[in-house]
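note to self: dont lose this again. the chain is below, predicted strucutre after it. 499 aa total, dont forget to put it in the shared folder this time
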Amino acid sequence: MAEKLMKYADAVEKFDPVFGLETHVELSTNTKLFCPAHSEFGGEPNTQLTPVSLGLPGSLPVVNKTAIDYAIKLGLALHCKIAEWSQFARKNYFYPDMPRDYQISQYDKPLNGEGYLDVELEDGSIFRVPIERAHVEDDAGKNTHIGGADGRIEGADHSLVDYNRAGVPLIEIVTKPIEGAGARVPEIAGAYVRAIRDIVRALNISHARMEQGNMRADVNISLRRHPGDPLGIRSETKNVNSFRGIERTLQYEIRRQAARLEDGLDILQETRHWDESSQTTAGGRLKSDANDYRYFPDPDLVMVHVTKEHIEEMAKQMPEMPHERRKRLQAEWGFSDLEMRDMLNADALDLVEQTVDAGAEAGAAKKWWLGELSREANARGLSLEEMPITPQDVAQVEKLVVAGKLNDKLAKQTIAGVLAGEGTPDKVVKKHGYQVVSDDGALDKAVDDAMAANPDVVEKLKSGNMKPMGAIIGAVMRATRGQADAKAVTKIVMARIRA
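---
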């Protein structure tokens, strides 16, 4: 039965939304957090295992030092207070993908304490997100439910468990309750998680591919009548793995909770799940408090000691941060603030930079990724980085255009061939015989024929009306199968009418 919803504008006018995010980022270490099992996405199920990652009796964990260093770097980027002493604890709960029946996490002594992240919104304004902690823990395995709708447990007749991911190191970044966002809650949440993604990629500590599950977020939201009132009862929507999903989860939950409160109904403190197909959330289990997890220090692991000298060493290794990089690239490329925001909103900045590095001019690289390729990605339901074309391919197409070997139409056809799996741009061009007509005689004849077939257009051109020029260019393009250079055609036509 569909839940009653209030219009979003009415909901944020009547209620003050307060939200929080728990962002899980898998670290791209070679091995798992507490054992030497290999850690790689996409391996054959249940092949990346050791007795430790399976939780077998007598197996003992040993902390991965690289994972701790990665966590320190992220803590520095998030302006966190990095603890000299931190501790791992056992978080006890039963779930089939947790082979030990407890998770090794951090509780009252996390590695990274309070911090903040300033995020830039679409209008250029800055919103500061307060961070409570960024602690280290190991991931669970992955359940695959068979027989139900959309891979969900509802209606499934059995489930398969892959423990390859069990034990992979991750950082959970927990915000404080985020107040004062008003109607911009979804926008701020999306911008925040995108900023986290950009930071961990800049640090080279995570692939941060949401579609692969190595970055995901738990979305918390509650409503209250007025700012300053006690916080309302919150829902927590688990494991949302897309930016759009995070934004739409918040929109939906605000509308759902507002309708319930307006009708005098209670809000359950529960976990919920986002359903992409129906664009709704569904109730899961009642949410436990921290005490219900029976945290206690893990007796098999000593406390982690991080010296000030080691933190200083990590600080020296910090790369250029995303906001600094954006300012530098904007200055180098001469782009406006709007052009940069367009690229950021399309998640195209990395692709444009790589295309420029491969030899294309920045404006041309932006044109391809935000134009032809964005339209095709939208049609396929893919992100730009999922498209079957590389920045090097795009740069090669642009080089052929600059060299006069392809016109815009042929370049688009070449791009289409690459996307269709026909190979590199050079192979596509060779296969189809794409080439701008450069034979002066052939082009002259095509122009003469087009002008002879369109005498009324020629008269308008002679009178100074250049608008009908497209009719002549179009006729020449048809005659040359789209292989004429429009600039060359225009030049010949102008020479003819001035003769």
